[in-house]
Design goal:
With 428 residues, the chain is α/β, with parallel strands linked by helices. It has helices spanning 21-26, 58-65, 88-94, 102-105, 112-122, 131-141, 158-170, 188-205, 216-222, 240-245, 250-257, 306-320, 325-330, 341-352, 361-375, 379-389, 393-396, and strands at residues 4-17, 30-43, 47-51, 73-78, 81-82, 95-98, 176-180, 208-213, 225-230, 233-239, 402-404, 407-409. β4 and β5 form a beta hairpin. α12 (306-320) packs antiparallel against α16, α14 (341-352) packs across α15 (361-375) and α15 (361-375) packs antiparallel against α16. The structure holds adenosine-5'-triphosphate. Adenosine-5'-triphosphate binds next to β1, β2 and α2. Residues 6-256 form the ABC transporter domain. Belongs to the ABC transporter superfamily.
């Protein structure tokens, strides 16, 4: 890779949420760890895709990377110079941000010609008497009829509004364009047309792009490299073809499997992740993905299939958080069903898809005792027994990004010291 245009080191951006006036006054509240210790670089002329589920921190990261939001800690440099050392005007002529909702980012009171010519005037890029010509050229270049320049944003379709925002961004002749969910509000054919337009503009102007999307299929066609984000962290980053052909991180694999028309290289099954994304206020210890990971590493001492261990870990986590609605229906206090302890333990196994019996007899004996404790009403004791016997490195040790060539993956399955079922696919 050439020298990075944009580089982030150990970048964090947190929010503090406060419920009421008193908390605000006292400056106390919960810390939302929206971006947590991100290292990232983007080269000149490159398109980097940033993907992940809603709420994982993509927008916060993108905005912090280009100085629209102050980092909590860490640093960002643009052309080797800290962002803080750039004047606002100089930074804005180099870096432009295309917002998720073009209607919200375009002034409804301004005709398109004013919207696009405003940056030309602010940054004194084109003399006043040539601005109309320049606006017409920019509109044509993004596929809009210059004769519509006197209309207002509401008169245009979603795709046309995104083109207006693009023309405005291009007016300052930027080097880097950050596109935040540029096509998420558009229909499939317009999505493809905007993606093609972005690619053409890159060829013509040598632009670099950071393309933010919750949809891997959008970045698949435009990105040279893809960074996958989960709960504030980058968990997988590498060339797009490497990610698609040999998805390494189980989270990337789950995202890939969710694409409606997967890449022809994809041979696995659809992976449905268990549970919700945990809160960034209190992210899980160890690997943040371990609470949902289909191939969480079983403890060395037992011979357990990843799927069986996943099921037991899900049971244990549910017992730990004390969510017992499901438990009451399986272990009724009035003895309506599950007449025998055995019937009830089997019902719990069924509920969590735990094989009966487990392949490892010693693990089976421990699980049996824990299930009996649940039936006897000792939920805390059962969760302690399961926790003491079946601890996974994924819940205690935070994985570092490990390099495999130019592909880096933060997963203990790629850590030689802890690799359990290395490279086994979640869908296998
Ligand atoms: N102003 C704010 N105050 C408090 N929390 C916030 C604020 N903005 C975002 N968050 C929280 O920070 C986390 C990351 O949000 P962010 O918008 O960066 O994620 P995202 O991946 O871009 O999501 P989306 O695709 O839905 O926009 C979320 O939990 C979100 O609720």
């Amino acid at each position: 890779m050439t020298d990075p245009l944009l580089q982030a080191s150990d970048l964090s951006a947190h929010y503090t949420t406060t419920d009421g006036f008193l908390e605000r006054l006292l400056g106390i509240g919960d810390t939302v760890r929206a971006v947590d210790g991100v290292d990232l670089e983007l080269s000149a002329g490159e398109t980097l895709g940033l993907v992940g589920e809603s709420g994982c921190g993509k927008t916060t990261l993108a905005q912090t990377l280009v100085g629209l939001r102050e980092p909590t800690s860490g640093s960002v440099t643009y052309r080797d110079k800290p962002l803080a050392a750039w004047s606002r005007a100089a930074l804005r002529t180099n870096v432009q941000y295309l917002f998720q909702d073009p209607l919200a980012s375009l002034n409804p009171q301004q005709p398109v010609t004013d919207i696009v010519s405003e940056p030309l005037a602010i940054h004194d890029i084109v003399p006043a008497d040539r601005r109309d010509d320049r606006v017409a050229t920019l509109l044509e270049r993004v596929g809009l009829d210059p004769l519509t320049a006197n209309r207002y944003p509401h008169a245009f379709s979603g795709g046309q509004r995104q083109r207006i925002a693009l023309a405005r961004a291009l007016a300052v002749e930027p080097e880097l364009l950050v596109c935040d969910e540029p096509v998420s509000a558009l229909d499939a054919s317009e999505q493809a047309r905007i993606c093609n337009l972005l690619a053409d503009l890159q060829d013509e102007f040598g632009l670099s792009y950071l393309v933010v999307s919750h949809d891997l299929s959008v970045v698949e066609h435009v990105a040279d490299r893809i960074a996958v984000m989960y709960l504030g962290e980058i968990v997988d980053i590498g060339p797009s073809d490497a990610l698609f052909e040999d998805a390494a991180h189980p989270y990337t694999e789950a995202l890939l499997s969710a694409i409606p028309e997967p890449d022809p290289c994809w041979t696995g099954e659809r992976i449905v992740l268990e549970g919700d994304v945990p809160s960034p206020i209190d992210p899980p210890a160890g690997c943040r993905f371990h609470t949902r990971c289909p191939v969480v590493i079983p403890p060395d001492e037992f011979d357990l299939e990843p799927a069986a261990f996943r099921s037991m870990l899900t049971l244990r986590k549910r017992l730990e958080v004390g969510e017992d609605d499901w438990l009451e229906s399986l272990v009724p206090r009035d003895g309506r069903h599950g007449d025998t302890a055995t019937g009830t333990t089997e019902a719990i196994r069924d509920r969590f898809d735990i094989p009966s019996p487990l392949a490892d007899p010693e693990a089976e004996a421990i699980l049996e005792r824990a299930l009996e404790a649940i039936v006897a009403g000792n939920v805390g004791g059962a969760s302690e027994q399961l926790g003491a016997a079946f601890e996974t490195p994924c819940e205690t040790i935070e994985p570092e990004l490990q390099a495999e060539g130019d592909h880096r993956v933060a997963c203990h399955r790629f850590d030689d010291d802890r690799a359990g079922d290395r490279r086994s696919r979640p869908s296998e």
